[in-house]
Amino acid sequence: MDTASLTGKDLAAAINADTTARAKALTERAGRAPRLALVVANEDPASAWYVNSLKKSAANRGIDCDTVDLGADASADTLRTELSVRSADPETDAIMLQTPLPAGVTLDDVSAAIAATKDVDGVSPLSLGLLAAGSAGFAPATAEAVVELLKHHGVALEGRHVAVVGRSNVVGKPLAHLLLAENATVTVCHSRTTNLPAVTAAADVVVAAAGRIGLVTGANVREGAVVIDVGTNESSDGKIVGDVDAESVRGIAGGLSPVPGGVGPVTTALLMRHVVLAAERPR
Ligand code: NAP
């Protein structure tokens, strides 16, 4: 079977074009560009690379990106204070908290300080709760990117069985809620799942979001299934690779999203769209 490459580049370009036009209209109306506060508290090279790419992407869309570097030894109190100040600041439309956080500080310790209306990566407990309840709010961009990518490539979700591998608050759990909203039947797998290959082999769509190289192979997906690879892992030779063993899956799956070039570009595009949506919100 031919396995279609479910790339995210065209979709990201279309979202970006819309965001750029909306950012321009907002700037003309409000007399200033939409503004994202990007809060960083680490010295991690991968994070620095990602922050740089977000800044570039924001600049290309006409969005102001204000990077707030609190240092790798910032306390939970310092982070909460900064996030609260930005949440109350009328000049800040959107807030994103970059991970990893300083040693000993978890997302749970600080994320509630981000106002849900500005929480463009959907990390606060309120955002996750709104999503679970099916109410308006921002979903984490990566989870939303998976659903948007599937829809863009015409993959039907209603009534179909989707296996999500991973249950983090930023990818697996929010994705399960988004898929339920599309009327899919969802199985969420994790490190304690018994016989993961049997679960993925029974699914119409498999989403790998575990951060484990080669976790999903051709032996554990069914013929014609669609496979979305969310994983972004560094291989021993320094390359970015997913969670799916693409070579063994090709020829069996009906479609497979590449890494890089699949979920990643759509995630960044949706983050920027969320910034504009937050800025468009009536005050
Ligand atoms: P995470 O917080 O580490 O969560 C990983 C999840 O995978 C956990 O629920 C864990 O189970 C599960 N898991 C780990 N090993 C497993 C195994 N052998 N079998 C079944 N489940 C297993 O990671 P995350 O933040 O959700 O990110 C997941 C992956 O997505 C990473 O590679 C990350 O880099 C990537 N990511 C990509 C983007 C993008 O835009 N493309 C954005 C964000 C993240 P337990 O809960 O039982 O521990």
From TrEMBL:
Residues 6-121 form the Tetrahydrofolate dehydrogenase/cyclohydrolase catalytic domain. Residues 140-281 form the Tetrahydrofolate dehydrogenase/cyclohydrolase NAD(P)-binding domain. NADP(+) binds at residues 166-168, 232. Pfam families: THF_DHG_CYH, THF_DHG_CYH_C. One of its GO terms (molecular function) is methylenetetrahydrofolate dehydrogenase (NADP+) activity. InterPro entries: Aminoacid_DH-like_N_sf, NAD(P)-bd_dom_sf, THF_DH/CycHdrlase, THF_DH/CycHdrlase_cat_dom, THF_DH/CycHdrlase_NAD-bd_dom. The keyword Iron-sulfur does not apply. GO terms for cellular component: cytosol. Belongs to the tetrahydrofolate dehydrogenase/cyclohydrolase family. Catalyzes the oxidation of 5,10-methylenetetrahydrofolate to 5,10-methenyltetrahydrofolate and then the hydrolysis of 5,10-methenyltetrahydrofolate to 10-formyltetrahydrofolate. Homodimer. This is Bifunctional protein FolD.
